[in-house]
Write a structure and sequence with these properties.
Shape: elongated
Structural class: alpha+beta
Number of helices: 15
Strand order of the largest sheet: 1-5-6-11-10-9-7-8
Radius of gyration: 27 Å
Helix content: 25-40%
Strand content: 15-25%
Length: about 425
């Protein structure tokens, strides 16, 4: 006997276990995403979730770097961070083989990210994120493709344009307005835009109180439209939105409060928001980051991209009542009338598998009625018992479980029937 307390079955706070049904739903999200991205010619890549800590400290978001990263010192006295985002890894990979790659790159990655965040709806400490990037083209058509792609992804999941809105801004516009307003480049300007970035998370009173720290008002410069450079960049953004509308993206708007928190953004930035007040939050976000690759040396390589997390996407789909269809684990359940029928059933199952059919075969001692119930519970669409009689006659009674209809067909036709 031992007095040791049993270990907890709970996962680490802020992460999830994925049982098969849960993981099946995640895979349905990933697969639908992969299908759309493949239709645009995007290739999937991946990297280790372990990165050197300086990769994020050199050009990241202060809040994430200082408060949300999982950073530790390994046994070789190296500082290591579990990746909170993918874009720096992408930049590192591109820089490593910049002369070998064929541009433009259309790349995407789906994987887990880690942030030590305050727990709340839509935010966990481990989440799965899809990052989509177009590398090697200047501002213009590439940015239009990014926003259109983000729009089409939500449409592909069943959404309508009324369910979400696309908010567009420009970091170049913000930078020009800061200069005209006399907001010194550097920490003071960064703190101002970080405040604007947090505006939606603050009460009006909190924001106004924090805003008093700054005497300059870049937003007023933009609204006034008297500076030629600022006015030209704002006009470019407005033209950008009009072009999107001409290309059937009708829910994009100019929003000067969209800043995007990462310091590496250099041009157009955008976020997509759920329009349902029950889930009024940002769903997708991204923008142009032309200078990030230069952290690793060499000339700049233009790039634009965006990302979205599985939690926020699932919340969006749930809020709007859009179902995520999970594929069955198998195409057919092969039952056994008795334990003695196992060899014959196994031979039939192997025959089906060689034809590309996914087969779940019964190995337990249970009645055919219980086997049918199990097939229904597992969501398997077809059932066929196979034993001595089926082996002798060469025919099988194929049961369609959704309708409970049966038909007797030659065993050689079963594969084609269940895979139609």
């Amino acid at each position: 006997m031992t007095d040791r307390q049993p270990l907890s079955t709970e996962p680490y706070k802020g992460v999830r276990d994925f049982y098969p049904a849960d993981w099946g739903k995640m895979q349905a999200l990933f697969n639908r995403t992969r299908e759309l991205l493949a239709s645009y010619g995007y290739e999937e890549y991946n990297a280790s979730p372990l990165e050197r800590a300086e990769l994020y400290e050199s050009k990241g978001n202060e809040e994430i770097v200082n408060e949300q990263t999982y950073t530790f010192t390994d046994r070789g006295d190296r500082r290591v961070t579990l990746r909170p985002e993918m874009t720096p890894s992408l930049a590192r990979m591109v820089a490593a083989k910049r002369r070998e790659l064929t541009y433009p790159l259309r790349w995407f990655s789906i994987g887990n990210r880690f942030r030590y965040e305050r727990m709340q709806k839509g935010r966990l400490r481990e989440f799965y994120q899809t990052d989509i990037d177009l590398v090697g083209l200047p501002e213009g058509e590439a940015d239009l493709e990014m926003v259109t792609l983000a729009h089409d992804l939500l449409i592909a999941f069943g959404a309508s344009e009324a369910d979400f809105s696309i908010h567009v801004n420009s970091r170049k516009l913000l930078r020009l307005a800061s200069e005209v307003a006399g907001l010194a480049e550097g920490e003071h300007a960064r703190h101002y835009w970080q405040l604007i970035d947090r505006k939606s998370k603050m009460s009006k009173e909190e924001f106004e109180s924090a805003r008093k720290e700054f005497t300059a008002d870049p937003l007023a410069v933009i609204e006034a439209g008297t500076d030629a450079g600022v006015a030209a960049e704002k006009a470019r953004l407005e033209s950008f939105i009009e072009t999107l509308k001409a290309r059937s993206v009708g829910n994009a708007v100019l929003d000067l409060d969209v800043v995007r928190g990462f310091d590496y953004y250099t041009g157009t930035v955008f976020e997509i928001f759920d329009t349902n007040p029950e889930n009024a939050r940002s769903l997708f976000g991204g923008g142009r980051y032309d200078g990030l690759v230069t952290l690793f040396g060499g000339d700049p390589i233009p790039a634009v991209g965006f990302a979205f997390g599985d939690v926020t996407l699932m919340d969006f789909l749930t809020t709007h009542g859009y179902a995520v269809h999970i594929a069955a684990s198998a195409d057919i359940y092969v039952g056994t009338p008795s334990p003695e029928d196992l060899p014959a059933a196994r031979s039939f199952a192997d025959e089906l598998r060689k034809s590309g059919v996914r087969v779940f075969m019964n190995l337990a001692e249970k009645s055919l009625g219980d086997q049918v119930k199990e097939a229904v519970k597992r969501g398997i669409p077809y059932f066929a018992a196979f034993g001595k009689n089926e082996a002798e006659t060469g025919t099988v009674r194929l049961k369609t479980l959704a309708t409970s209809s049966e038909e007797e067909i030659p065993r050689g036709e079963v594969a084609a029937r269940v895979m139609h």
